[in-house]
Amino acid sequence: MGAEITDPFKACCCANSAIIGDQATIGANTSYGFDDYLQSNMDWIIRIQAVWKAKVYRMRYAKQRDERRKKSTHFLIQD
Predict the structure, then answer these.
(1) What is the largest distance, in Å, between two alpha-carbon atoms of the chain?
(2) Residue 79: alpha-carbon gap to chain centroid
(3) Across-strand partners of 20?
(4) Phi then psi for 39, rounded to 5 degrees?
(5) What would you report as the CA-atom Rg of the chain, rounded to the nearest whole angstrom?
(6) Distance CA 55, CA 58 (A)
(7) Looking at residue 11, what is its pLDDT?
(8) Cα–Cα distance between 15 and 24 in angstroms, integer?
(9) CA pair distance 32, 8, nearest whole angstrom
(10) DSSP string spanning 21-52?
(11) Nearest alpha carbon to residue 1 among 24, 33, 23
(12) How far is CA 79 from CA 11, 70, 76, in A?
């Protein structure tokens, strides 16, 4: 990853980095641990979870709506 780890779209996959234990060193004096990555990317993690949860709920709602429409005796789709 590049020096800027808060934006995954700007991160470079070709950057030279070495993994030592549970820390990755990037550059000369910079070392990041798991907690640093987690905290710096927490906004992205929350955003991805929210988008995924919304998609699942929309799919579930559409499925339930279609099932209710098939069973309905009032207000048929053709009407």
Answers:
(1) 72
(2) 42
(3) 23
(4) -65, -40
(5) 23
(6) 5
(7) 53
(8) 12
(9) 15
(10) TTEEEETTTEEEEHHHHHHHTHHHHHHHHHHH
(11) 24
(12) 54, 13, 5
Q: Which DSSP helix (H) or strand (E) runs through 18?
A: strand 17-20
**Parallel, antiparallel, or unpaired: how do β-strands 30-33 and 17-20 relate?**
unpaired
Which residue's entry shows tokens 């993690």?
Answer: 45
Read off the tokens for 45: 């993690």
User: What span, in angstroms and rounded, lies between the C-alpha atoms of 18 and 24?
Assistant: 6
Grouping H, G, I as helix, E, B as strand and the rest as coil, residue 7 is coil
- pLDDT by residue for the chain (79 residues), tens only, comes to 455 455 555 555 555 455 555 555 555 566 767 788 888 888 899 999 999 999 999 999 999 999 988 887 777 666 6
